[in-house]
Amino acid sequence: MDVVGSIIHFLERLGGKTVEVVERPAKKIPSGKSVQERLKALKEIQMEIEREKEEKHEQELEEIIEWRKREIQASFSDRIAEVILHYFKGPVLAITNSLKGLDKDLYRANMMISKEKYVATMLIVSIFSAIFLMLFSYLIYLPSDIVILTGLLGFMGGFLYMRYYPKMVWKRRVTEVERALPYALRHMASLISAGVGIAEAMLSVSRADYGPISEEFELILRDMRTGSSFEDALTKFEQKMASESVSRVVKQILRAVKFGGNLSEILYKMAEDFSFEYRMKLVEYVQKVNGISFIYMFLTIVMPTMFVVGILAGSIMNQRLVMQPEALAVILLFAFPGVSFIIINMIKKGEPR
How far is CA 24 from CA 12, 41, 51, 220, 289, in A? Predict the structure, then answer.
């Protein structure tokens, strides 16, 4: 019996070691005196391994769900741009390399998007513009060659519009920054006169609701936190805006910080100067708009009516159509609205900044 017991004891030890080496469980099997204790320990280890597998599976499912949520939250244009960039990466990269200065325009417009993805978006807008104009030309029964021509013009127009869109955004941001400058300068001057430092005053402006100038001040402070000096961060802001008003403010601040001076009084004085200049420009702008408004009404209301009446009168006198309905539709739908758009654009560009 002693020999049989020794053999059983040896086999139990050998089985425990084999399970421990092969499966390498998270917990070591306790050395028990009976087979039941060892079986119980093995069952607990097996349950623990299954729980770990379930937790890992649940974690993978959570990651997939989170990824799907981010994908759904992304805009439709972003998802299409990702598809275009994935399947047509070669042509997109070729167009990107041919467009010089696009990265600078995106940076100035504060558009946080890569050049390649923006070019993919440009292609999407161009294709949709071409399809829309071709469908419109087809619905008004234009000839097939005109339909193709309008499609090409739509593609080119959409591409050129998207190419210069960052510049338009940048100019609009500069305009908004210049408009908010007097308020931001008064804000900073009041804090500095109370004993607050220039960096803390800029932080207060960045947390206020002054529009793009608050965003730009936040970028200045971010550059300073990442190791840039105060002078370098302000100079970078000046170069990004490329504005005479912003350049004056930056130079005055740097001069006051470097050589000393009452910075709060300087900021107050510049704020008053900017406000006075804006009021004078606004008076001139109102006078100019009053003169252009008569021309705009004549070109958009009176002239189209006179044109249609003239076409009808000429057709009645000649007892035939002087102009084809398709050509008349094109003139009324594109020519006169185009002139109106040009006049509105001229008025908008003359708006004081």
Answer: 17, 13, 16, 55, 84
Residue 251 CA to residue 231 CA, distance in Å, equals 10
Residue pair 186/265 in contact by the 8 Å Cβ criterion: no
The answer to whether 268 touches 186, Cβ cutoff 8 Å, is yes
DSSP secondary structure letter of residue 100:
T
Contact 216, 177 (CB under 8 A): yes
Cα dihedral 312, 313, 317, 319 in deg (nearest 10): 10
> Which of 218, 220, 209, 212 lies closest to 187 in space, CA to CA?
209
Q: What percent of the chain has pLDDT over 90?
A: 41
Q: Coil, strand or helix: which one is 310?
A: helix
Q: pLDDT tens for residues 220-239?
A: 999 999 989 999 999 999 99
The answer to whether 198 and 288 have CB atoms below 8 angstroms apart is no
Please state whether 196 falls in left (phi above 0), alpha (psi between -120 and 50) or beta. Answer: beta
pLDDT tens for residues 90-99? 888 999 999 9
Of the candidates 164, 162, 184, the residue with the CA atom closest to the CA atom of residue 237: 184
Rounded to 5°, the CA angle 163-168-173 comes to 140
* Direct distance between the N- and C-terminal alpha carbons of the chain, in angstroms, rounded to an integer: 106
pTM of the predicted model over 0.70: no
For the chain, the residue count is: 353
Angstrom distance (rounded) from CA 334 to CA 276: 41
- Do 131 and 151 form a contact (C-beta atoms < 8 A)? yes
At CA 272, angle to CA 270 and CA 276, rounded to 5?
115
Query: Which DSSP symbol is given to 299?
Result: I
Lowest mean pLDDT among 67-71, 73-77, 139-143, 173-177: 67-71
Residue 325's region, left for phi above 0, alpha for psi from -120 to 50, else beta, is alpha
Give the whole-angstrom CA distance, residue 89 versus residue 119.
Answer: 10
